[in-house]
Design a protein that fits this description.
single chain; alpha+beta; 4-stranded mixed sheet; elongated
């Protein structure tokens, strides 16, 4: 598969997953509306909560992530080499503005991009990455992160995170309604047993379903950024070699990373565990060997 086929394939899959996620949130809203005899109420509730979540994430999410990970802005002359790489590849990518550059003091080999759009974006790398990668490998990693910015992956994942939060709140609302608010309805048999069971199942399973969809989107966006980054540098081997070093890192744990920010990194910021179907299903990143293989086939 060539660069363009890989990029087009992952874009289609990402759009499909996001559409499924959106439909699922709408369904939860409609279900709440049916519970209370007014479908507009459920949809309105979902929209209001979603807008509040989105505005908070849109305008404050990036700074919160940088603060959470203890990232510090890179300055010259200490990080001249890194800044020059970001500036050069940003120009090649056609970005309207060069992203800010940050560094995390950590021996782990990792990097991530954040921000709401190309005009308000940042690229962050660990000092361990700077020390261990050569120039071509570093360019591969930076190109990957700039591709996240150019492809608006940072906004897509922000929207996905909002939807996950929304499913959790809506499912909790459904559960509480059945446990307390709708008790009189149950006693007067206004709701059928089947309807109650469906509602409880949604309340329990919705957060899990939402999280699985978010993780699937995250994995697809990683493949897309790999392909776009390779297209940007015209040297897939650089990123493949970088991923190989990241895979072999004896201490991949990024100290200030957590589950809320894990999907942002180029590779999981936690200690590696033995691969399995269930592990891969709940992983924020696709298998790194599969990513390397795809890059080497380009």
């Amino acid at each position: 598969m060539n660069f363009y086929d890989e990029i087009a394939s992952n874009k289609r899959k990402s759009v499909l997953l996001i559409a499924c996620f959106f439909a699922f949130v709408v369904f939860l809203g409609l279900f709440i509306g049916v519970m209370y005899g007014n479908s507009y109420f459920g949809l309105g509730l979902a929209i209001v909560i979603g807008v509040i979540y989105f505005l908070f994430s849109y305008y404050g999410g990036s700074n919160a992530i940088l603060t959470m990970t203890k990232a510090k802005e890179a300055t010259k002359p200490q990080y001249t080499h890194l800044i020059n790489v970001v500036e050069g590849l940003s120009l090649a990518a056609g970005l309207s503005k060069v992203p800010k550059v940050y560094v995390i003091e950590d021996t782990a080999l990792n990097a991530f991009a954040t921000g709401r759009d190309p005009e308000h974006a940042a690229v962050t790398v660990t000092t361990g990455l700077l020390h261990k990668l050569n120039r071509l490998e570093l360019e591969g990693v930076i190109a990957h992160e700039l591709s996240h910015i150019k492809n608006y992956d940072i906004r897509v994942m922000m929207l996905t995170a909002v939807m996950v939060g929304l499913t959790v709140l809506l499912s909790d609302f459904i559960l509480r309604s059945f446990l307390w608010g709708r008790r009189d309805n149950r006693e007067s048999n206004q709701l059928s047993l089947v309807f109650i069971l469906i509602g409880l199942a949604l309340a329990i399973l919705s957060p899990l379903i939402g999280e699985l969809i978010k993780l699937a989107i995250s994995r697809k966006r990683e493949f897309l950024a790999d392909a776009s980054g390779a297209l940007l540098t015209r040297y897939p081997k650089g990123l493949a070699d970088a991923l190989r070093k990241i895979k072999e890192d004896p201490d991949p744990l990024v100290d200030h990373a957590n589950k809320a920010t894990a999907h942002l990194f180029i590779s999981t910021p936690f200690r590696k565990e033995k691969s399995s179907f269930m592990k891969n299903l709940f992983s924020t990143h696709p298998d790194i060997d599969e990513r390397i293989k795809k890059l080497e086939e380009m």
